[in-house]
Design goal:
heterodimer; A: 358 residues; mainly alpha; B: Rossmann fold; 6-stranded mixed sheet; 4-stranded antiparallel sheet; 32% helix; binds adenosine-5'-diphosphate; binds magnesium ion
């Protein structure tokens, strides 16, 4: 009976009864959308979106464009890894963009150099405190601490006071943004140490994004933590009755999301060599869109990190596709809006189809 | 057969002003199968939730295996050996069969706290074994249970109780949503449990089923126990009379 098959009860294991992984659909969508831009490019501006058309460069693909696409989604992608976990548990996190702002400001003020071109750093934010030329581990730990605290507050509010995640994280969104403005009374913070500047240099954001994505994909697929995320999002009451410590788990999920947002902040401020109070505005929506495009359901219980990575690529392809077609930046903003709403509409449609057993 | 596995004394649960369960005195002996009957809203599920630690009782005592117990949560009750098939199934639709069977007490391959790595092979093997007892047909254990039939889902829920060594099994309306064939399957599982001497509480509206399976019938009405009847000393008509309130057991006269 219990041979190598996975069928039970006299039924032969039936490979056709195996559900197709949702990521496959998302991947096909990525290919289709890329193909659309390729065709549009050839028709409208007579250039290739994907392939190398320049004589003086070798290689089949337009390497530069591919790098730009993945680089521009990497930082928000790091946030989306956390947002995916939140959404799988049936929650939502609107605070990630503001956590990026607050973390960037606070971490950067621990990452400034003492001497710029032989003079004392003119942009030193707290010169009297002597927070200058500190080893890079200090801003990293301080930054991740910011994300941890924000996540802890989000998670505790949601788990123990039963405030809906939407409201709790909306509060954090406003509060953390206020924090980032208050921290240096609105002044940007720049001149980081060389080791801090190395965090987000070149393709480092991509490396960090992919590493974290692989790590969390493994965690979601193979650990108790991952299994409980899906269980809670799927049926919170069942999870509780089964003995899962739902409240503890939720706090942990929001803490992880907060810390990942702060990692994104470290990478972003390092890459830009400066931190500004307005950093990360709207990132939460981009991250949610990537997650939902990647197949996660806002109702909880479904989604994956791989899906979100592909969702991030779709997001990146669409944005750089519009740049490539030489559309105005204003259009891009509008297109982003359409993508975000479209992703949610798509999710609603998928949910309804599930409900009628399609 | 005399040893009492479960006893409740004055078990009471109020939801605000709703007196869902009032002063329930109940006893279950080793190897005994007891059916609980009663109209919708009589307090049957509430009774189960107080015993299994899903809710905290308003007052009263629960004595399990000779000791008074205070389960803080459902996991406490399960660890003490009470396995329950809840009325609303308590399954996670997006997870596959083994994950549902082991929900909340996964087999661990490498212990890393919350990030412990799961023993998928072990869980799958145990699942196949448990499902064999239920004779359910499931083409692929690795699929999410969302699209499974009511009977398949019910069998998953029941297999869950059979997977773990238990001292008491409680089933709250296990066949309410099932077809004839599926009902027969579930009833066969219950007969097996009886043959193995495993004590069981089954809540059911199905008179034929109750008379087939149970040794004793306890009737709930409006939050109170109104009758405690040995199967061979009673009849269907009699039970209906207790359920509807036409009759009340002599020893429960004050409850009417
Ligand atoms: N969580 C709750 N809050 C308030 N009232 C409840 C709750 N659960 C059950 N009740 C009420 O308690 C009574 C008994 O319900 P229940 O135990 O589900 O009945 P049964 O399982 O016998 O059909 C009903 O009147 C029901 O409305
Ligand atoms: Mg009930």
């Amino acid at each position: 009976m219990a041979q190598a098959t996975h069928g039970v009860g006299g039924l032969k294991y039936d490979a056709s009864k195996r559900a197709r992984p949702a990521e496959l659909n998302v991947f096909v969508a990525l290919l289709l959308i890329t193909a659309v831009f390729e065709i549009l490019g050839r028709l409208v501006i007579g250039d290739s979106f994907l392939f190398n058309t320049r004589e003086n460069v070798v290689g089949l693909f337009n390497q530069q464009r591919l790098e730009v696409i993945i680089l521009q989604v990497s930082i928000v992608g790091i946030i989306a890894i956390g947002v995916t976990q939140v959404i799988i548990t049936g929650g939502i996190d609107l605070s990630s963009g503001s956590i990026v702002g607050a973390t960037a400001m606070i971490a950067m003020s621990f990452a400034q150099v003492a001497i710029v071109n032989g003079n004392p750093n003119p942009k030193a934010i707290f010169p009297e405190l002597g927070w200058l030329d500190l080893p890079v581990i200090v801003p990293i730990l301080v930054g991740m601490g910011c994300g941890l605290i924000a996540g802890l507050i989000n998670g505790s509010l949601i788990a123990y006071t039963r405030i809906p995640p939407f409201i709790a994280t909306l509060g954090m969104m406003v509060a953390a943004r206020g924090m980032s403005r208050w921290w240096s009374t609105g002044n940007p913070i720049s001149f980081p140490t060389e080791s801090y500047a190395a965090i987000g240099k070149g393709l480092m954001p991509v490396v960090i994004f992919i590493t974290l994505a692989i790590l969390f994909q493994l965690i979601m697929s193979y650990t108790k933590y991952g299994r409980h995320c899906y269980a809670i999002g799927s049926n919170e009451e069942a999870a509780r009755i089964s003995g899962i410590k739902v409240e503890h788990h939720k706090v942990l999920v929001y803490v992880i999301a907060g810390v990942l947002a702060s990692v994104a902040a470290l990478v972003l401020s390092s890459k830009n060599l400066t931190a500004q109070a307005g950093m990360g505005v709207m990132y939460e929506l981009d991250a949610i869109a990537m997650t939902v495009i990647g197949g996660a359901s806002l109702a909880g219980g479904r989604g994956s990190i791989i899906g979100t990575v592909i969702g991030a690529l779709i997001f990146g392809v669409i944005i750089s596709g519009f740049t490539f077609l030489k559309l105005d930046a204003y259009y891009q903003e509008m297109v982003k809006g359409v993508i975000i709403v479209g992703a949610v509409v798509l999710d609603q449609w998928r949910q309804r189809r599930q409900a009628i057993g399609g | 057969m005399e040893e009492v596995i479960l006893r409740t004394e004055g078990l009471t649960k109020h939801y605000g002003g709703v007196h869902a369960l009032e002063n329930a005195n109940f006893e279950l002996r080793m190897g005994e199968h007891v059916a609980i009957m009663g109209d919708n809203g009589a307090g049957k599920s509430t009774f189960v939730r107080q015993i299994t630690g899903v809710e905290q009782r308003t007052s009263g005592k629960v004595i399990f295996g000779g000791q008074e117990v205070h389960f803080k949560g459902p996991l406490d009750a399960r660890q003490a050996g009470i396995e329950t098939v809840f009325q609303n199934l308590a399954l996670a639709d997006d997870l596959d069969v083994p994950s549902n069977l082991f929900l909340g007490r996964e087999k661990i391959w490498l212990n890393l706290g919350p990030f412990s790595i799961l023993d998928f092979k072990g869980m799958r093997a145990a699942t196949e074994k448990a499902l064999l007892r239920t004779a359910v047909k499931i083409p692929n254990l690795g699929n999410s249970i969302r699209k499974m039939s009511g009977g398949q889902r019910q069998c998953v829920a029941i297999a869950r109780t059979a997977t773990f060594a238990s001292k008491l099994i409680i089933m709250d309306e296990p066949t309410a949503a099932l077809g004839v064939q599926e009902t027969t399957q579930v009833e066969n599982i219950i007969r097996t449990l009886k043959a193995n001497g495993e004590p069981l509480i089954i809540i059911s509206h199905n008179m034929r089923q109750v008379f087939d399976l149970a040794d004793r019938i306890v009737v709930f009405r409006r939050g109170r126990i109104v009758a405690n009847l040995l199967k061979h000393e009673t009849s269907g008509e009699d039970v209906v009379a207790y359920i509807t309130g036409a009759k009340t057991g002599a020893e429960y006269a004050d409850a009417a």
